[in-house]
Records
---
Amino acid sequence: MTGSFTLAFVPGVTPGKWARVWQERLPETELTLVQVTNADAGPKVRAGEADAALLRLPGDREDLHAIPLYTEVTVVVFPKDHEFAAADELSLEDLKPHVLWQPLDDPLDWDAMPGQPPVERPQTTADAIELVAAGVGLLVVPQSLARLHHRKDLKYVPLSDAPQSRVALAFPIRDENPELVEHMIGIVRGRTVNSTRGPEPVKKQAPKQQQRRGPAPQQKKQPAKRAKPRRGR
């Protein structure tokens, strides 16, 4: 199969393993990976600038199908010398006395922010990380983003009762290239080549010289008919 496929992905999501499988299964179809912000992922797909996107839910899903793939662990980020340094896990109750940053690109869906509200919101998660490293406030993010912005002077632990984000594969409801999207769905879901909805393997036929005909079926012999005796005249 020839052609091309563009897959957008948001920060923290690592599509490399799926890209390798794509190259193995569809070597003639070029796969292009494009990193975008979570806010831009949906619009990129709707505009046709990407065939599909790996994004976080909840999020912009207008005119898009979204297949959830996995749920991310939510963590709280703080300096290594913070009072939480010895904790293995924290709860929202623990955060109440502390300033909690909520960057404008926050992927979590909060009913109400815990902790003390900051004076202003940082533009990005990276900006919020810098503030935490300076000893000002804490940050709650999906674990993949904490890993992406890892620093030696910071630590993070799971937050037990915080909202979580789910990573999903999104593509247009009116898809113009359903076959390639179906291939990508199979790859991110871990389907094998021989699975029902994955690409069908080529069936090899035996060479003609090796095809032998079986013995001809034997015909059953019909019993001989007896001659009728003649009547006298």
---
Amino acid sequence: MFSKVSGPVRLADRVAVILAEEIESGRLAVGDKLPTEVALVKQLGVSRTVVREAVSRLRNAGLVEARQGLGVFVMPRRTRPLDLGAEAADTRSKVLQIVEVRRAMEGEAASLAAARATPGDLARMRQALDAIDAAVAAGGDGADEDLAFHWSIAESTGNAVMVSTVRYLGEVLRSGIRVTRANEARRGDFFEAVRQEHHAILAAIEAGDAEAARTAARLHLKHAASRLQDADDGFWTETEDIAVDIAVDLDAAP
């Protein structure tokens, strides 16, 4: 049924895509049993570990279910869980799409944080900003610390659904932030602009001004998109390795 799969990285992702295409096309219909693990290993030319990881991805996406002692079967079509890890996209368009999602989500999160943040929440946000400066001063890109700042805002909303969503998107956001910060590191004025934008968000939250916080957060992401749009093709060529990391890191998302 299948041709051998080859390639240096992320074979499990590629196998998952192949199997998903068989299901989506109807060649593997609802109720059909997937070939056995041994058969898939032989047909695709990959290891059993790769096959297991790929099938696990399909289960998480709601495409198949394992039945004890019987095998793995295609499930009826339904609204399936969000599975960003299965997506493949050009680096530039992928990162810009991430920024768009962040702008919508984090604008509202900042607004809610302005109304709900406790003194402890505010302290964690300020610590996160200080950590970004420290990381950059030490020669790092500050990406993890940047993400921690945005997470601290979401957590201060007290909205469990928002927090869970941000956590799910964590690795997507981490990869996107790595790209944006790599771009911003190319110019000192970019870095200082980002720093000021972060502090503007925090200032509005500390002041309890929900509308100002929403505006500051959305403006920050709007400017991030503009800075990425202005990056030359050479920058995107240099960051092709980050495109691979986006796909790899997604597997670690909770």
---
Amino acid sequence: MKLYYSAGACSLAVHIALREVGAQFDLTAVNLAQHRTADGTDYYTISPRGYVPLLELDDGSRHTEGAALLQYVADLDPAQALIGRTGSTHRMSVIEWLTFVSTELHKGFGPLWYKDTPEATRQGAKDKLAKRFAELDARLAKQPYLAGDYSVADAYAFTVLNWANVLSLPMTAYPNVLAYMERVAARPAVQAALRAEGLVKEDAASSVA
């Protein structure tokens, strides 16, 4: 398999999941500003939508949409530990949270990335995100991960919540979210993905196998 990614983008969630299940895969970096891969290929010729993640399977087929890819990758593990057995309530809970992260967090950050976003729209996005952060904080006060046990929903949430740091959104009002981020970040697969994307220094991840 081959994962097309951009460092720190939503593709990081799929990258983490691939490492969590022990998959064999290659990485191809994409410059999203220029829409070109590291070798200069026009990324639109690979992904007509021009965004990441894109996962190319061994049969040559190419697939997008992070929430869908995370479910696929989780099922590569015969134990389905990161998503739950088909038909189980745990699996339904994981998919619920994948959907929440996709629609309420991922898309919620959208207006904040653009300098020309009107201030009223920007503030509205921040206010809505604050409500979602508070909801997460309350849930994480009761359990360590979104669906109880660690899952691909947490890989996705960790990736998206990290954008608060990039955008300088204060998170001190959500101590349980901050503790959660530290728990997820400490996982070896997460550290390996962060290191591979150049998001942490080598010495910071020197203890990771």
